[in-house]
């Protein structure tokens, strides 16, 4: 297992991890077992939650601008 596997998996997730390391799915599964799946999954969930919380103000801003644009076009 690569030394940076834990951090990379938490950051990019399952979909891109196979391409990142250019290896077979079975190897990735073995690395996940070796890293400790419950802890790895919890770390990934926490990372995604923090990322969503960080992006929330921007999403609210975009939604408000979209609402205003719709109102403007209705006039």
Describe this structure in words.
It is a single chain. This protein is 88% helix and 0% strand. It has three helices and no strands. With 75 residues, the chain is mainly α. It has one domain (5-74). The mean pLDDT is 89. The protein has helices spanning 5-21, 25-35, 37-74.
Low-confidence stretches: none
Overall geometric form: elongated
Distance between the termini: 60 Å
* Total domain count: 1
- The residue fraction in helices comes out at over 70%
Whole-number radius of gyration? 19 Å
> SSE order in H/E notation?
HHH
Strand content: under 5%
- Compute the number of helices: 3
Overall strand count: 0
Describe, in short, the structure shown:
With 75 residues, this protein is mainly α. It contains three helices and no strands.
List the helices and strands and how they pair.
Blueprint: H1 5-21, H2 25-35, H3 37-74
Helix pairs in contact: 1-2, 1-3
Features:
75 residues; mainly alpha; 88% helix
